[in-house]
Amino acid sequence: MPVPSTQPAAERKLLRDTVQDKIRAAIMDGTLEPGERLNDDDLIAWLGVSRTPIREALAELARAGLIEMAPNRYTRVAAPTKDELLDAYRTLGVIYGGVVRLAVPRFTAAQRKKIVAVLDDVAARVDGEHMDDVAREGSDIYAMWVEACGNASLAQLCRGTTDGLAFKLRVPELTELVPADVVRPEIDKLRAAVLAQDPIAAELAMEAIHLLPTRSAD
Predict the structure, then answer these.
(1) Residue 160's closest CA among 142, 178, 148?
(2) What predicted TM-score, i.e. pTM, was given to this entire model?
(3) What is the rounded radius of gyration, in angstroms, for the C-alpha atoms of the chain?
């Protein structure tokens, strides 16, 4: 039986992914601003590719929550709102509580040292009232946990959802809705749990950081 060539499909996928990475990076670093309209011709001129991989990439970014699309009306960068913030923040807590529980026992000494350094930096920024900076770098911080979790299905889920959820935290009301005095002690607990290699304590701390309800006392 003749074997069909898959080369063209592989090339299209690679090109789409390259375009997607470039547009994603421009959104996450603020080059493309929330609410900014995305015109196909401008994107073609910038990226130097045809319309098809651009539309494929935009569709993927829309599924991730970074792009908003309305047929025959607009394609634009998503614009986070105050009303979406807490739902997105708590969803990250649900996901990353599990990620942390899996990752903590698997950390190498080098990974553990790196995570502790990042948590120290996050704590310093919270103390300095720079939680907006933490939110801006949120996707990269979450990715560090995913790298060590050892669960391919969970890692795939994180790759498809984290950017869009973390992007929704970029609103001026962040410090109002995510109080530093609540979050800050839990960061210390998470740091201690990482050093103690205690996955349960780490999971609970990550969930508390994200304002998930705790068990009430009987």
Answers:
(1) 142
(2) 0.84
(3) 20
List, for residues 105-152, the tens digit of each pLDDT value.
Answer: 999 999 999 999 999 999 999 999 888 888 888 888 999 999 999 999
- Chain position carrying tokens 């929550």: 65
184 pLDDT above the threshold of 80: yes
Cβ neighbour number for residue 114 with a 10 Å cutoff: 15
Residue 194, C-beta contacts closer than 8 angstroms, at least 6 positions apart: 104, 107, 112, 115, 116, 119, 202
106 CB-contact burial (10 Å; exposed 0-12 / middle 13-18 / buried 19+): middle
Cβ burial, residue 56 (10 Å; 0-12/13-18/19+): middle
**pLDDT for residue 33:** 93
What DSSP state is assigned to residue 137?
A: T
Helix, strand, coil percentages in the chain from 3-state DSSP, rounded to 5: 70, 5, 25
H or E stretch covering 75? strand 74-77
187 vs 208: CA distance, rounded Å: 9
